[in-house]
Design brief:
Number of strands of chain A: 2
Distance between the termini of chain B: 45 Å
Largest sheet of chain B: 2 strands, antiparallel
Helix content of chain B: over 70%
Number of helices of chain A: 16
Mean pLDDT of chain A: 88
Shape of chain B: globular
Order of helices and strands of chain A: HHHHHHHEHHHHEHHHHH
Radius of gyration of chain B: 19 Å
Shape of chain A: globular
Low-confidence stretches of chain A: 1-7
Strand order of the largest sheet of chain A: 1-2
Radius of gyration of chain A: 19 Å
Oligomer: heterodimer
Order of helices and strands of chain B: HHHHEEHHHHHHHH
Structural class of chain B: mainly alpha
Number of domains of chain B: 1
Number of helices of chain B: 12
Chain lengths: 325, 291
């Protein structure tokens, strides 16, 4: 946030080379090969971990896109939840997955425009708390609606994605992560990048420079929330069952935030790498410790802020910050 | 009419604890300039310490209160030394996320050690009650409210009548100015943060008697404290008291008069936070000063 702020945008743009996409391409190549490896007895389990890692990656990267516009949100659980519940309700209405998921994403995007418009003038902790409150209101409403609408506190059943075919589900998640990465790169390589960075570094200044702050902040909200809803829909399709407490849990807002900071803020590779490392660590811990495995998230978040403010991506990309891929 | 008065009394009694938690948070935000997202976790530590004292040593939670306060003051001071102090000059985002991480860490450590169950503290006066005509007030509730009022009185006495209190308020108003006239700002921060945590812990002791101790008990109270300081306006310590009473009363009213109130009262309270924040943001000046 500091060193990059002083660097002229033109220089950062000039630094772009296609070779910088290599680590990202390598990740996707490996991820694509993964379900075709001979995984042995634990194949189902490993594919499931892989699937949720991809979902975590989508959620984190979508959060990061919003954060690039200076909006540090705690409402991602809301859009994740809207994606899950939206898909579930549309499926119940008889739509196929191929329509339900994109429609749920649009729905979440639409809701995010309202939230974004209302919280337009908030920043920092106020924005964070307002978005957190929004999520809780949404959760309480769904929880207290009559059970015939969305299952109330008991939750509702969701038809499995692709009839429960693990490899197929994994590949769907991978392609949606690919889509999210493409959107993220597009944001990075177009004028959106400069607009977001300008708003993040100083809204007043950005306005003086002629950036239409309202429009760009809303755009960030829409893109980010629609993508987060895709992650929520995938989650619903894999677990067959959703309930308000888990889907709208604060943990779903914290995880993308921690993941992005740990991996490397404002980058495409960072949140994806962060999700991979953290999810795997979480699974390992989950097996050995029953309660409180989220301890890792707290510790990682604290240590990253204190000693690794640029995330793991920053370990090898010295000297640049805030505009990396 | 009785029901209405009873509701008002319950709401008022509840607001004592809210005011304790919120004044602590207001101290951290106002003096140190740190929005402590882990504030509720110090409450949780206080509640568990009170429970442990009662379960293992048979000490009444209310007698253990000064000890718990002192212990958590120490924990808070330590937290300041090893973490908060290093991000004082960092962007607000980093400070916020650091305390956020701390909160997750503490909460899940508690989950790991204590498990997810709630633990109740039993006291001889648990079932006692005072009756005033047709109205009745739970004994523990009344004691908790009395203690909260006492402690808040002491806090405001210190803030407005002693040198240390003046120093704290000076630092809250202007960090650099305070430093220029020779106030040891770092020391003031340490004390303010420690006191902030101790206040949360005191509330935690009361919560352990009234409610229970559990790893997640702090979150709700921390969120309510946020709502209160946001309603009061940053750094406005007397506003905290009024806002606590408003929140306590409105919660009690919703619980009594809205059908299925228990479930909806959370939504009402979060709507209040959301509404206040948004409303304030369109008033302007308040937020420019705060950021």
């Amino acid at each position: 946030m500091s060193a990059a702020a002083s660097m002229p945008a033109s220089r950062r743009a000039a630094e772009f080379r296609w070779t910088k996409l290599l680590p990202l391409a390598l990740f996707f190549a490996l991820a694509l090969a993964f379900p075709f490896l001979p995984l042995g007895d634990r194949r189902e389990f490993l594919l499931q971990i892989g699937f949720f890692t991809l979902v975590a990656g989508i959620l984190a990267l979508s959060w990061d896109i919003l954060a690039r516009s200076g909006q540090v949100s705690l409402a991602h659980a809301a859009f994740y939840g809207l994606g899950a519940y939206g898909s579930a309700l549309l499926l119940r209405a008889g739509l196929p997955w191929g329509l339900a998921l994109p429609l749920a994403a649009l729905l979440a995007g639409g809701v995010s425009l309202i939230l974004g418009a209302v919280t337009m003038r908030l920043s920092g902790m106020y924005f964070a708390i307002a978005t957190l409150a929004f999520t809780e209101v949404l959760r309480t409403v769904i929880q207290n609606l009559p059970e015939s609408v969305a299952g109330g506190a008991n939750g509702m059943l969701v038809p499995a994605l692709l009839g429960g075919n693990s490899r197929g589900q994994y590949l769907v998640a991978l392609s949606l992560l690919g889509l999210t990465a493409l959107v993220s790169l597009a944001v990075r390589l177009t004028r959106l990048h400069h607009a977001f960075a300008a708003i993040r570094q100083g809204e007043e200044t950005a306005r003086v420079l002629g950036v239409s702050v309202v429009r760009y902040k809303l755009a960030a909200f829409f893109i980010s929330s629609a993508l987060a809803a895709l992650a929520g829909g995938l989650y619903a399709g894999k677990t067959f069952f959703i309930n308000p407490l888990e889907t709208f849990s604060l943990a779903n807002s914290i995880a993308p935030l921690t993941t992005s900071i740990f991996g490397g803020l404002y980058t495409t590779l960072g949140p994806i790498l962060g999700a991979t490392v953290l999810r795997v660590a979480e699974e390992l811990l989950h097996n050995s410790v029953k309660n409180g495995y989220l301890v890792v998230y707290g510790l990682v978040l604290m240590l990253s802020i204190l000693w690794l403010p640029r995330g793991i991506v920053g370990l090898w990309r010295r000297g640049r910050h805030g505009g990396d891929l | 009419m009785e029901l209405f008065l009873q509701t008002l009394i319950n709401g008022l009694l509840q607001s004592g604890i809210y005011a304790l938690v919120a004044s602590g948070l207001a101290l951290a935000v106002g003096v140190v300039g740190i929005v402590n997202f882990a504030h509720g976790e110090y409450l949780m530590i206080g509640a568990f310490l009170a429970w442990a004292g009662s379960a293992y040593f048979g000490i009444d939670p209310l007698l253990a209160l000064p000890l718990v306060a002192l212990a958590v003051f120490g924990v808070g001071a330590l937290t300041y030394r090893v973490s908060i102090r290093h991000v004082l000059l960092a962007p607000e985002l980093n400070q916020m996320l650091l305390t956020f991480g701390l909160g997750i860490l503490l909460q899940n450590l508690a989950l790991m050690i204590m498990g997810g169950n709630t633990r109740t503290v039993s006291t001889p006066y648990q079932a006692s009650s005072l009756s005033l005509g047709e109205l009745s007030v739970g004994g523990p509730k009344a004691i908790a409210f009395g203690l909260a009022v006492l402690i808040l009185g002491a806090l405001y006495g210190v803030l407005y009548r002693t040198t240390l209190g003046r120093q704290m308020r000076a630092v809250a108003q202007n960090r650099r100015g305070a430093q220029l006239i020779g106030i040891d700002v770092d020391r003031v921060y340490l004390l303010a943060f420690g006191v902030s945590c101790a206040l949360a812990a005191v509330a935690g002791v009361l919560v352990s008697v009234l409610l229970f101790a559990s790893p997640t008990v702090g979150l709700v109270f921390a969120l309510k404290a946020f709502a209160i300081i946001v309603m009061a306006g940053l750094g406005n310590l007397t506003g905290v008291l009024w806002a606590s009473v408003i929140l306590g009363l409105s919660e009690a009213l919703v619980q009594t008069y809205v059908p299925g109130g228990g479930g909806w009262s959370d939504a009402v309270f979060f709507l209040m936070i959301f509404g206040t924040l948004v409303w304030r943001s369109y008033q302007g000046a308040f937020f420019r000063r705060a950021t």
